[in-house]
Amino acid sequence: MKKIVHYIGLDVHKDSIAVAIAPQNSTEVRRYGIIGGTLQAVDNLLKRLAKPNLELRFVYEAGPCGFVLCRHLRSKGIHCDLVCPSLIPKKASDRVKTDRRDADQLARLYRASELTPIHVPDQEDEAIRDLIRARTAAVCDQRRARNRLKGFLLRLGFRYTGKTSWNDAHKRYLSGLLMPRPAQQIVFQEFIHAINDAAERVARLNTAVVDALPGWKWEPVVHALMTLRGMQELSAMTVIAEVGDLSRFENPRSLMHFFGLTPSEHTSANKRVQGPITKCGNPHCRRVLTEAAWHYRLKPLVSEAMQKRQEHQTKEVRMLAWKAQERLHKRFKHLAAHKKSVVALTAIARELVGFVWAIACKVKPAQKPPAPEVIRTCQGKVYRLNPQKKMPKTQ
Questions:
Q1: Which of 15, 242, 297, 364 has the largest CB neighbor count within 10 A?
Q2: Do 337 and 251 share a structural domain?
């Protein structure tokens, strides 16, 4: 007997979840009500809704609550999708927003197949992504601390005449400064301590990111992307941790859309106007790809460091990396002669995405051995069994 699908929209918050049900064999949307925001409350909801002739499919918006609820439902064998809030169709005249109405809209659109689900990373990928984002936040905090100190010194009339800041000469200059008042000297020393603490934090996170790469299932893909000019460990890990499997995109153009590197457009009748890039995608990947694109202003060259990164890669991957150097340098030189350098740089970053996609599709992630089975006895003892190891024969 064919099961009837019930599409269930959830408006998830920290302490509450609004639930709406859209049956497959009806045009109505029923409001179930509001339940608690815990996983136990969701389990109680499943017990009430579960029936032999029903199939439950859940959907909710990606938000601050993360992927915990989605992973919990999928672990029970229940279909669950996450959707991006910016991709949900909305009426321009709809000015009333409540939790119940949002749940109704999710259930109705999910039944009509009008929602586009997003990729849900596994816990290991999410952990490395959080580590890389923490490193990015630490760099931003370091930059803010430095800017506060430079603004403070400029207001008091101290001007550094060197060409480069925060090198050894600049640090010696700062160590010899004396503020006019004791209170200002305290402020100056606190700014120095904040900068040093931020630098130590960045160094610790840099080490943690490098140590997290060995053993990661995407390590072969990261090493393959490092064959590209301007893509080193941190840049390649950022792209993979934020996107996951790049081969899930049908073509590089869709990956460019995901990064927000495609130009906006307003076309009507015979008039076609293209504007700046959309910036609707992942900002972290867009930043590292733009930084990598700046290296292609230089002539094609395989340096000693790059040759070392390409040692254990296939000939196909190395040829793609060399083709990227030749093409992108030529394009950068051509675009820089007619357009602003920022516009040319963005165009090179967009084309670099195509080579990133091509290389990522050539390399498969590492296959991890299955996790050991855990058996807990009634006495509380825990035994871990290795499925690859044969058990000894009993006498």
A1: 242
A2: yes
Render pLDDT for 229-242 as a digit per residue (tens, 0 to 9).
999 999 999 999 99
Q: What does the pLDDT look like over 151-173, one tens digit per residue?
A: 999 999 999 998 899 999 999 99
Per the structure, the complete domain to which residue 182 belongs is given by 123-212
The CATH number of the domain holding residue 78 is: 3.30.420.140
Asked whether residue 274 falls in the same domain as residue 349, the answer is yes
Instruction: Please classify residue 301 by burial: count the beta carbons closer than 10 Å to its beta carbon, then call 0-12 exposed, 13-18 middle and 19+ buried.
Output: exposed
Nearest Cα neighbor of 81 from 101, 94, 67, 64 is 67
Q: Is residue 70 part of a domain?
A: yes
Q: How many CB atoms lie within 10 A of CB 39?
A: 12
Residue 240 in tokens: 């993979």
The pTM assigned to this predicted structure is 0.86
301 and 325 inside one domain: yes
